[in-house]
Amino acid sequence: MDINFTNIKSFLLDNKTVKQTIFKNTFWLTVAEGISQFLKLILIIYVARILGATEYGKFTFALSFLSLFAIFSDFGLSSITTRELSREKDKEKEFSSILSLKILLSIGALILMLIGSLFVTADPAIQRVIWILAVFVLINSFSEIIYAFFRARQQMQYEALTGILQAVAITGVGFFILFNFPSVENLSYSYLFASSIAFVFILFVFHFKVFSLKLSFKKSIWKQFLAMSWPLGFVTIFSIIYNQIDSVMMGYWGQITETGWYNAADGLARVTLIPPFLISTSFYPVLSIAFKESKEKLQKVWDYQMRIIILMVIPMVIGGLVLAPRIIDFVYSSSFSPSILVFQILIITSGIIYLITLLNLVLTASNQQKKNFWITLSGAIVNIVLNLILIPKYSLYGAAIATLITFLLMFILYLISTAKFTSISPLNSKVFLVSFSAVLASVPMYFTISLPLVFNLNVLLTVLVGAIIYLISLFIFNEIFKLNLIFKNE
Hints:
Elements: H1 2-13, H2 18-70, H3 77-87, H4 95-120, H5 124-152, H6 157-180, H7 184-210, H8 219-252, H9 256-271, H10 274-293, H11 295-331, H12 339-365, H13 369-421, H14 429-450, H15 452-455, H16 459-480
């Protein structure tokens, strides 16, 4: 009994083999994200229900606006820190200087947020919400540099514990506020309070368990890391623009209620992006190491994660399109019916983002992050232009269509860049074979969940039935056509 417990503990905490490390990191991130996103989703649902679409729109407008400036507190530093420290352990001694750089960037970002809030809205209530949430956003951003260190060491259990703590705190305090002192401003204070608790915890664990916290002000190290991170910094700026500018534009033009409807759908669509985030975060250090070892190793790791993503994305998109009316009505209420079409458009977009996430990472791992810069710049420009044209005419639906077109364009550009500037063959026979299998297995799932008897069940049961049908179909088609590449262990 003791031996088994010791083996399990070692398997989930120690890094032994590549596969075991990937599984361990994915396990911890899955547990953390699963618990965190579930709790936060439940809270947001009640925020929308209790405060209504207009007040919820104010809250999401403030967060979207702050996201435009939050990137200046990191500027790609966290991602480059993970990459560099995972490749060379000796570089950990430079982490103290990285911390001091992060503090300076955060101060600059805070100043931009406070100044910007005076121009984006004349409503003093929304301005106060922005000021409160600005500190919340920066605390979360600063935590990312600590997480970067954990990811470099592939010890993501610490990140997982912090994420769970923050989610529990935000949910607990948030519900207390909603049921006793319901207002957008009080809700903002609850987010700030909860994130502060988690931040103190992560600093304590990091300092006493992992790496002694101290500051060093070596400008040469600042220049070195900024020289590597600035392309990723601009990539993130542009990605934030095409992810958040639609909500900011709608809020700026006074479409606060529409912003609430849009973000209600967008919030649910973003939940579906958790799996690629978990997978990519676990694979990123492995991709970076594989790049240094051999082209064959890099391609092998790429094929492995690509197959996982494809098998998830195709049934997710098809199921989301069919069940959108049931999902929106179940999660919110009939008053949020304008969110249905938005959700259907954004669930297709999420499927495209699944694939873009992997292409983005392989370019970064291959030292081609500057290509990410040009692609995301193109996406940001296209998205802004499309939003300026479509939002005034079609409001939240125009914003959703602009987002879909933007990501479709970026996907094409990412495919071309990956094929041209890396040793990866992104679309190969294995990818097409798995895609064919996933589409084939999704057909019986589609007809099953479309049946009135199944469609009108509790939406959670309908999703469960669909998932079971898909998995059974996938297994059957795998056996019939001998598609052993799907389940082959590599």
